[in-house]
Design goal:
9-stranded antiparallel beta sheet, 14 strands, 2 helices, alpha+beta, 220 residues, single chain
C-alpha cells in the first residue's frame, strides 16, 4: 500500500508541475501580447507624408519611329522636388533605400534615380531634388499618340513615383523593413495652357510649367 501511495503521489506531483509550467507559459505569452498592445497603442506609427513641391522639365522630346503605325522614342530630363515629413512624435523613420522615377499613364518613362538614405527624427522633414531622365525610351503607338494629344491640348499629367524600404525606430527598438510606395501627381501646362498645335518638339525654357504643389498618395 505504501509503494502504491508513493507512486500516486509522484504522479500527482508531475501533474501539478505540468500545470504550473503550462500556466507560466500562458502567463508569459499574455504578458508579451499585453506589452505589444500597450506599445502599439502608445506609439501607433503613422506612415510618412509626401508632397511634390516642384517639377522642372529641362527636355521632353518624342521622335517618330519609321513605319506605319509605329510609336516613337521619348527623351526626357526633369528635376522633381519631393518633401517627406515624419508625423510621429515618438517614432523615427529610416529611409534605407528609395528610388524615384516618372510615369506617364502607368508606363515608366525614366530610369530610377537613387535617393540618399536618411533618418527622420520625430516630426522631422526631408527634401530630395533628384534628376529624372531617360533617352530613347520606346513608346507604343497608343502612348505616343496620347502624349501628342495631351501636349496639343495644353496639359500633361505625369506621375512622380518613389519606391523603397523604410524602418520604424522607437527608442532602442527598430522594426524590420516595410515597403514604401509613393505616387505624386504632376500636372504640367504646355505653352501656358495653349498647347503645341500638334508639335511635340519640347519647346523652350518654361514650355512645360508645373502647376502647383500636391500631396502624394503613400502606401506602406
Amino acid at each position: 500500500m505504501s509503494i502504491k501511495y508513493c507512486d500516486q503521489h509522484k504522479d500527482c506531483e508531475r501533474q501539478r508541475l505540468y500545470r504550473r509550467c503550462c500556466a507560466a507559459v500562458v502567463a508569459v505569452a499574455l504578458l508579451v501580447l499585453l506589452v505589444v498592445l500597450i506599445v502599439w497603442l502608445v506609439l501607433r506609427p503613422t506612415k510618412p507624408r509626401f508632397y511634390l513641391n516642384d517639377v522642372t522639365v529641362v527636355c521632353l522630346n518624342v521622335t517618330s519611329s519609321s513605319g506605319s503605325g509605329a510609336g516613337g522614342y521619348l527623351t526626357v530630363t526633369m528635376q522633381a522636388t519631393v518633401a517627406a515629413r515624419n508625423p510621429n512624435e515618438r517614432v523615427g523613420i529610416y529611409y534605407d533605400r528609395a528610388d524615384a522615377f516618372a510615369e506617364y499613364r502607368g508606363a515608366q518613362v525614366t530610369v530610377p534615380t537613387a535617393l540618399p538614405a536618411v533618418y527622420q527624427g520625430h516630426l522631422d522633414a526631408s527634401v530630395w531634388s533628384p534628376f529624372l531622365s531617360a533617352a530613347g525610351v520606346p513608346l507604343p503607338p497608343a502612348l505616343a499618340v496620347a502624349l501628342a494629344q495631351d501636349e496639343t491640348a495644353g496639359y500633361l499629367l505625369l506621375t512622380v513615383r518613389v519606391d523603397g524600404w523604410i524602418r520604424w525606430k522607437a527608442g532602442a527598438f527598430i522594426t524590420d523593413h516595410y515597403h514604401l510606395r509613393v505616387r505624386c501627381p504632376a500636372l504640367l501646362t504646355v505653352n501656358g495652357g495653349q498647347g503645341s498645335y500638334g508639335s511635340n518638339a519640347g519647346g523652350a525654357a518654361g514650355y512645360f510649367r508645373f502647376q502647383r504643389a500636391a500631396a502624394c498618395v503613400v502606401d506602406v
